[in-house]
Structure formats: C-alpha cells, structure tokens
Amino acid sequence: MGALCSVIRFENLQELKRLCHWGPIIALGVIAICSTMAMIDAVMWYWPLDTTGGSVNFIMLINWTVMILYNYFNAMFIGPGYVPLGWKPEKSQDCMYVQYCKVCQSYKAPRSHHCRKCNRCVMKMDHHCPWINNCCGYQNHASFTLFLLLAPLGCIHAAFIFVMTMYTQLYNRISFGWSSVKIDMSAAKRDPLPIIPFGLSAFAASLFALGLALGTTIAVGMLFIIQMKVILRNKTSIESWIEDKAKDRIQYYKTGEIFIFPYDMGSKWKNFKQVFTWSGIPEGDGLEWPVREGCHQYTLTIEQLKQKADKRVRSVRYRAVEDYSGACCPVTKGVKTFFTTPCTEEPRITLFKGDLILATRGLKHWMYGDKVLDSTTDAGMRVRGWFPRKCVEKCLYDSEMDQPLDGEKKNR
C-alpha cells in the first residue's frame, strides 16, 4: 500500500511539473493579467459594485476566469490518453496493418501517433500543444476546444471593460487646442471621486492588458476555428495532413485509388458528438472507432504504411560536408540559414563531417531527415530532425535516390 501511494505521489509531481514550462507560464500570466485588470478597472473606475449592473458584470468576469481555468487545467492534467504499453491488435494477423513503436514497445492503435515530447503513443493525437505542455488527443480534445472558445469570449468582455474605463476616465481630462491635445492625468472630474485616482500607471496597465486581450482574442480565436473545422469532419490535424498526402501519393503514382477517410460519420452533428458529450467522457475507448460504410478499422493505418514506404523510396541520401552543432539558429551557417530556421518544435540533429542522412523533405535553406546509424551499435534508435542544407551534399553515387525531395517544390 505504501509503495502504491509513493507511485501516485510521484505521478502527481510529474504532472505538476507540466506547469514549469514557458507555455503554461505565459498562458496563465496572460489569463491572470487580463482577468485581474478587468476586475480592478470595473470595480474601481467603470462599474462599481454598489450598482446592480456592476455586480452582474463582476460575477460574469469571475465566471469567465473560472471556466477558462477549469478547461485549461482539464486539458493539461487529464491529458490525451496513451496507448497501453505492450498493446497489440486482438487478432494477430491484424498486426501487419499497424505500425510498431520501438520506443513504447507496442503497436500503434488506429489514430494514435508517437509524441517525442511526451515519449508515448497518444490516442487520437491532434498535436502537441506547448501552451498546455501536453498533447491534445482523445481524452482532452473537448476541454482543449472549450478553452479555445472561452478564452476569446472572456478577452472580448475584458477588452470592453478596458476600453470603457479609459474612455470614461479620460473623457473630461482631454482638452483640444488649435495645434495640440492635452490630457490632464492629475485628477478625475468625477462625482463621487474614486478611492484611488485613475493615474498614468493605471492607464498604462489598462492599455497593456487591452493589447493582450485583443491579441489573445485573434490568435486563440483562429485556433478555435481550425479545431472546429477538423472536429466537424471527425478528423485531427494530423489526419487532415495524412489525407492530403494520400491524394498526393495517388496523383503522383496515378494508381487510380480512391481514398475515403474512414471516421467521417457523414453528418457534422454525429462527428461533433464523437468529441463533445453531456458526460464529458468522449465516445469509444480510444483504441477502436466507429467507421463509415465501406471502410474498416485499419483503412487509415494501411494508408499510413503506404505513405511510409513511399517516403523511404523517395528519400534522398546526403553526406555531411560540415559539422553542425544542432543549434536552432546557427550563426556560422550564413545569414539566410539563420533567419529562415523552421518555426517548429521539431528537433535539430547534430552532424559531423561524413555522416549520412536520408532526407525526406526540405525548405530552401533547411532539410529534414533521418541520420543513418550503425545498425550494430545503435539498434532500435532513430535520430531525425532539421539541419542546414549548406552542411550536406547529395551522394551522387546513390542511383536509387536521384529524385527531388517530396514536397520540396511546394515548400519553396
């Protein structure tokens, strides 16, 4: 029993460590600044609590804050749900339709993907979100999306408070001359006078909070729209990308195949209910999923295997001609390389002169690929990431790899 309690305490501490990351620190900081300043502005200078409207407004501000934090911490601490270690399909013959994860030592269930940040295979993985320092997936997709909805709504309310506070407090202080505009911040011409005058520091703080609120409304609101688009199609962001690559693969090889996404229920309402339920618990178990007619559980995983094989065929072998430290923005590799570093959390790989790399995609000044490792000493390991294009040269002797990088023209 004592050992079990120790394990639980350790897991709780590990979850709390998620807060010690730049994403949650910034997100919670923005929430704290906007909500606190909105309450202070409303109570002190715009809508006092001794009025009915002021009381209702204050309760609404508290309500926004509580609901935003509730869904934010749900998304962070409940997590996406992970494929059980050692999982494999019930029927042994179905193992040929799914990928095997060497890190988790188990097969990847349909719709699951391995996350390098979480170091686990995530059920119905959408993406790894730095703002919650966790993945968005099967169990927390609804909470994450509600957070994306509530945060802009709360910020719109807060922005209204900031604008009205500054307007009402500055209205009687502004005097217009023939060639100048003067603002008297020494005293407010208001009856009755507030307990604390609206001074220059309060104006600066309100203006700063207004900027945060408007920025959050735009940025998070756009993320909410993106999430709702994929939810109403019963997809994830990764699955949308897989579907696009399936169309490109079929068009490239002219196979005549017709790829049908298996999890679209044919109705936006039915797709919506796959994520949002009254109980708060998503449909299914995260391992098996309802599919549309004409498809089966492994329709998508078979397409993934085809794309993986295609990526191996179309990869290009390169040899490192310069050392590269793995820095995100290398100063010594040229100005263009420095300023065009990929805006992604995907890793950079360290290169030494003579290393071999199989490149699978590229930008104008950067490439992405897998380092070719010694199979005897590095069995089971996989090192992949971005590296500067100028550090490598194509292996001309490799006749199988003389094709252009998949997607390179698009990225250019």
Automatic annotation (TrEMBL):
InterPro entries documented for this protein: Palmitoyltrfase_DHHC, PFA4/ZDH16/20/ERF2-like
Gene Ontology CC entries for this record: membrane
Domain of life: Eukaryota
Subcellular location: Membrane
Keywords on record: Acyltransferase, Membrane, Transferase, Transmembrane, Transmembrane helix
Pfam families: DHHC
Enzyme Commission number, as recorded: 2.3.1.225
Transmembrane regions: 25-47, 53-73, 146-167, 195-226
Recorded family membership: Belongs to the DHHC palmitoyltransferase family.
Classification via PANTHER family: PALMITOYLTRANSFERASE ZDHHC16 (PTHR12246)
Protein name listed in UniProt: Palmitoyltransferase
Organism in which the protein naturally occurs: Chelydra serpentina
